[in-house]
Amino acid sequence: MKKSGIFLIPMAVAWLSLAIPACTTKSDQPHDLKLNELGYFECGGVNFLVFSNWYNGMFSDSKMSGIEVIHHEVRTVTNGDVRLGPTPEQWDPIPVFVDRHVDTAGGFIEAALSYPDDDFHYSIKATVAGSDLVVQVILDTPLPAKLAGKAGFNLEFLPSACFHRTYMMDGHPRIFPVYASGDMEITEEGTNQPLPLATGRELVVAPEDPARRITVSSAAGDICFYDGRNKAQNGWFVARTLIPTEKTGVVVEWTLSASSLPNWNRPPVIGHSQVGYHPDQQKVAVIELDGKNRLRGSATLIRILPDGSELKRLSGLIKEWGQYLRYHYGTFDFSEVTGEGTYVIQYDGYRTDPFIIAPDVYEHAWQPALDIFFPVQMDHMLVNEAYRVWHGAAHLDDARQAPVDHVHFDLYAQGPTTDTPYEPGEHIPGLNVGGWFDAGDYDIRTQSQYATVMGLVQVWERFGIERDQTLVDREAKYVDIHVPDGVPDILQQIEHGAIALLAQHEAVGHAIPGIIVPDISQYTHLGDALTMTDNLLYDPDMGINESNGYYSGKADDRWAFTSRSSALNYGSAAALAATSRVLRSYNGSFAVKCLETAERVWTEEHGREPDIFRVGNTTGGRLEFEELRAAVELLEATGRPVYRERILEMIPVIEEAFGYHAQLAVRIMPYMDEAFRNRVKELTRKYKVQVDSLSYRNPYGVPITRGGWAGNGTIMTHAVTNYYLYQAFPDIMEKEDVFEGVHYIFGRHPGSSVSFASGVGVRPKMVAYGMNRADFSFIAGGVVPGVLILPPDFPENKEDWPFLWGENEYVITMGAPYIFMVKAAAKLLNE
Questions:
Q1: What is residue 667's predicted lDDT score, i.e. its pLDDT?
Q2: Percent of the chain residues topping a pLDDT of 90
Q3: Which of 11, 34, 145, 816 has the least CB density, counted as fewest CB within 10 Å?
């Protein structure tokens, strides 16, 4: 039987599950957990993490914290912590992390946390007990009375790891529901809460499957088992024991036991491009092994012939790379094979998915982003595709002035004044046009809008994409995918983004942070964006259910956050200037408005002290960075000396962060003297040293980031920057500096070999955090954030659970660099 490079552990037969204790040695005897030097417990195929992550540094529950279990290299359990409800939702209160103590000699980890608003402080201690882990909740003072019946120790189980399996509570068997199940009740406080699926003292998850079996035993107090999906589609199964009142010391004690397959080794992952390779490219697969294993034997490249027969095309030893994170790596170079055809790579009995070698391998790989992803994200338009309507013309009631001195739950805020002619709550006319849904949610984040416009402008100016596969009828507010209309699609997308940007300036006189729904109940909306609001302007004099077809008494209109930010104003002006260059022949009057507005913003900003308003990630980048971008775009749009002179004054800004500004530096070289070019060349030499060092930091040769949001955006931008620098200085940079990023996105990355571009490649990302995530589906052409490195050493990108936004959420800012990167690769290989 052929084995896939993406390996799924087969379901074990029933008798085997009875024979495997928690952790086993080669003799199948229980083996003790060990607290390793990285600060987590391990034994065989089981890792227990104890506050290695704290909600992943995010502002809400990101399902990455507390007690976690990595079970045969799949993280199946998280959020072992004290919570204030049975199935907490994303925005429910999370504790404040105080500190964490790791005692290797004593075999325990203890974390101190608190809910300061409730004057509630506690610690969680996890201690080795042979092959088990004992988890205790410890209080120095009794539980505050107001938290009685609310505070409990929770442990959450990943639903997709439980599908098609059973569980037992005190020996009574039940089947895990694939869809949200269980009864609900209305509490005394009037909230809707789930009732337990089961209650008892011992919970066994997946007793039949030794790869997934976990036992939870409570020393005192019942374990209630809930289905969190009843309240939120992104909920998990939750085991919970309430904290008793009027007690101190150990108030909850659980024993956790996780089964481990005897002598288990993680199967190898053969990282390769799911799209394939151009004959002239370097072709290097990265083989990822269990950290205990070492490379052995050789890998074989096999060509698949038209009749299905196989031809061994190349066999070679694996080149040792070494250790990265928790895995061991080697590389297999098959660059010498250039024949067009279908191939697989085989190593140690495992095979990759098929891939191709062909001269046109990248010619179509960028198209789904422009054909599908961008149209689907278009706000204020009905988007149709054949028999399917993606969404109606949403948010035509945009937008009401946000209240002053207000901090929104999703990184927006309004300062002490509106900075507009409008009163809080008043309708601002003219904002219900253009723009894209920012991400898997539905807001208009201005910083994303202008970055995307500028990125698409660069695609047009560098590659002149004239592809036309989408009809855009602005008067009818109608978009039809797969229906040409005689206009290059990329110009229509640039126009759509710029319409929203220009509308802000025309409505209130400056760029605004963005537009978003006011209430969490709207924000969590999963479905047609048209139903997010009633599309009628709010009239406070009407009853809540009253309407006349134009106005209604329902205050569901999105809010416009309008505080002035000079950084944001410069960024918006930069995009409008860029738009003016490419739309002159398509929509000349609109292009003139864009340029006039951009120049007015520049003049106004230079005639006063900057407005500094910094909140979240919605008020622009660093002021000098945004000003530099505006100067570059305006220089290219007008050629005026004033912009060139300002750029020369800002050379220290370019030098300070050359990697960030290198694209701009290359673009303005035609306007500068030889001294400027020589300085950029010198900076490029230093930058190249950093690029080359990446191949020593990880086996993929790209800048893999850490943090709460995975780094595909950084990697693609890195590849685009390298393209600009190669075009300017081919004696310094190499084509491979671009291709490394392409290979990474298309499958040569840690953890799996899936293509991170949905709908692109043999095995693309098929489950992602888009507007259709509740259906466990995808939007073709969307690129997900990618592999998230969970501290201390676990790379993760879940392919069966879409709701982890840091790994799987589409954002519009990924679209333009993806198209550019793939087009750049194609051009380099065919020039």
A1: 98
A2: 92
A3: 145
* Tokens linked to 173: 């068997």
pLDDT of residue 14 exceeding 50: no
Whether 530 and 589 have beta carbons less than 8 Å apart is answered as no
Q: What sections of 124-238 are H helices per DSSP? A: 159-162
pLDDT bin (cut points 50, 70, 90) of residue 17 is: very low
449 SS3 class:
helix
Q: pLDDT, tens digit, for every residue of 286-319?
A: 999 999 999 988 999 999 999 999 999 999 999 9
pTM above 0.85, yes or no: yes
Average pLDDT, the chain: 94
* Tokens found for residue 626: 């945004």
Nearest residue to 676 via CA among 703, 647, 696, 656: 647
DSSP letters, 240-255, are EEEPPSS--EEEEEEE
pLDDT in tens, 58-83: 557 889 999 999 999 999 999 999 99
- Retrieve residue 325's tokens: 């994170």
Provide mean pLDDT across the span 240-255. 97
**Distance of alpha carbon 50 from alpha carbon 128, whole angstroms:** 12
* Contact in structure between 434 and 576 (CB atoms under 8 Å): no
Model confidence over 251-271: pLDDT tens digits?
999 999 999 999 999 999 999
Whether the Cβ atoms of residue 13 and residue 123 lie closer than 8 Å to each other:
no
Whether 494 and 456 have beta carbons less than 8 Å apart is answered as yes
Do 518 and 532 meet the contact criterion of CB atoms below 8 Å apart? no
- How many CB atoms neighbour CB 475 within 10 A? 5
Angle at 631 between CA 628 and CA 633, to 5 degrees: 110
Q: Which residues, 6+ apart, have CB-to-CB distance to 691 below 8 Å? A: 722, 733, 737
Residue 510: how many other CB atoms lie within 10 Å:
22
Chain centroid to CA 571: 23
Query: Strand 559-561 vs strand 400-401: parallel, antiparallel, or unpaired?
Result: parallel
Beta-carbon contacts of 364 under 8 Å, excluding residues fewer than 6 positions away, are none
Name the nearest CA neighbour of 491 among 510, 524, 467.
467
Q: What region, left, alpha or beta, does residue 677 occupy, with left being phi > 0 and alpha being psi -120 to 50 degrees?
A: alpha
DSSP 8-state secondary structure symbol assigned to residue 286:
E
Question: What 3-state class would DSSP assign to 791?
Answer: coil
Q: 3-state DSSP call for residue 813?
A: helix
Position 747: which residue type? G
**Model pLDDT, residue 56:** 56
The model's confidence at residue 27, banded by pLDDT at 50, 70 and 90, is: very low
Task: Tell which phi-psi region holds residue 303, choosing left (phi > 0), alpha (psi between -120 and 50) or beta.
Answer: beta
Dmax (CA) for the chain in angstroms is 80
Q: From CA 174, how far away is CA 182, in angstroms rounded?
A: 12
State the DSSP H helix or E strand holding residue 14, giving kind and residue range, or none if neither.
Answer: helix 14-19
pLDDT for the residue numbered 189: 82
Dihedral of alpha carbons 519, 524, 530, 531, sign: negative
Cα separations (Å) of 607 from 538, 604, 611, 640? 38, 5, 12, 18
Mean pLDDT computed over 756-772: 97
Distance CA 230, CA 163 (A): 16
DSSP states of 361-372: TTTTTTHHIIII
